[in-house]
Amino acid sequence: MSGEEEENAAELKIPDEFLKAKCLMNCEVALILEHKYEQLQQMADDPMNQMSQVFEKSLQYVKRFSRYKNPDAVRQVREILSRYQLAEFELCVLGNLCPETVEEAIAMVPSIKTRGRAHDDEAIEKMLNDLSLIKKFE
Amino acid sequence: MQLHPRHFGRDLRDKLVAKLMKDVEGTCSGRHGFIVAITGIESVGEILEAVVTMVNKMGFFAEAGPVQIFVSNHLIPDDMEFQSGDIPNYTTSDGSVKIQKDSEVRLKIIGTRVDATEIAQTSLAQLLSRAVLLSYSLFTLILVILSTASRSDNQLCSLIPIRQQILIIRLLSQFCIGTIKDDFLGVISDPGATS
């Protein structure tokens, strides 16, 4: 056991400042970046010209991999997931990847099952069901 | 955001920007009326989705936004073989699963490479001119999105205290190593499947 532990998201070993920080899901970032893009469009004739490549690529990426497009659905996803005492990072990975089974969810975010946290299979299953309902009614 | 009057003067803007960065970097709380947030991307061990950009016999490259990810052929399941040709790809022996350019894959980040020179070269002024402030702490890329899309540096100081949105995108580095050799990883969609 060394003092300086390697970063490992699977075990929720991420730097302190990020552990405490607010995380956003792809669908939330997409809403923010799109809003920004619209503002750019209004300000200039050629919005593409003003965008950094990082911005452009980030926008394309989050749009492509957003499971929820409708702003209300995005809000609901966060609300539902936040009932389950997840770390911000875990919440976002689940919201981004939308696992369909308990087994898949644990493979995606192994930390939800460790350190004696109150997530039994039943609770995880309920959470996944709630998520899939939002998708269905979006 | 508040700035002590002793900082007022010629380099007010620089002071404001410096304070903004100091306040924002690392702490990432929603103080001072702006929204601070971090996208949960690119942590070692994290599983994410990416788009395949190039396939060769060494493995394949994929992109997740601005981040490049390389998956070596050792980290592709053993039953997938490289097929050369017009569209190079990795295919299972029964042909049911194929990875080629534009495939969407779910992969796990297992390593990163940090390019320090790139960090040093990032010019704040240059980035400010795009109304997007980017600042690197060692592993962090901070992207500030002003709610008013002014490109003028002079206007920036008057804008900073106003409501604004700050989005922090975390990039461990712009280049990562990934694997798809694990449960629930691999292809999620073929090119054109969604069109």
What does this structure look like?
The complex is a heterodimer of chains A (138) and B (195). Chain A is mostly helical and 138 residues long. Chain A has one domain (11-137): RNA Polymerase II, Rpb4 subunit (Growth Hormone, Chain: A). Chain A is built from eight helices and one strand; from the N terminus they run αβααααααα. The model of chain A has no long low-confidence stretch (mean pLDDT 79). Chain B is an alpha+beta fold. Chain B folds into two domains: 5-42 and 115-169, no CATH class; 47-113 and 175-183, Nucleic acid-binding proteins (OB fold (Dihydrolipoamide Acetyltransferase, E2P), Beta Barrel). Chain B has helices spanning 12-24, 116-121, 124-128, 153-159, and strands spanning 35-39, 47-56, 59-64, 67-72, 80-83, 89-92, 98-99, 104-113, 132-137, 140-145, 165-169, 175-179, 186-189. In chain B, the strands form three sheets. Chain B has a five-stranded mixed beta barrel. The longest helix of chain B is centred in the N-terminal third of the chain and has 13 residues, at 12-24. Chains A and B meet through helix 1, strand 1, helix 2, helix 4 and helix 6 of A and strand 1, strand 2, strand 8, strand 10 and strand 11 of B. Chain B: Its main location: nucleus. Chain B: Keywords: DNA-directed RNA polymerase, Nucleus, Transcription. Chain B: DNA-dependent RNA polymerase which catalyzes the transcription of DNA into RNA using the four ribonucleoside triphosphates as substrates. Chain B: GO terms for molecular function: single-stranded DNA binding; single-stranded RNA binding; translation initiation factor binding. Chain B: It is found in: Nucleus. Chain A: It comes from Sesamum angolense.
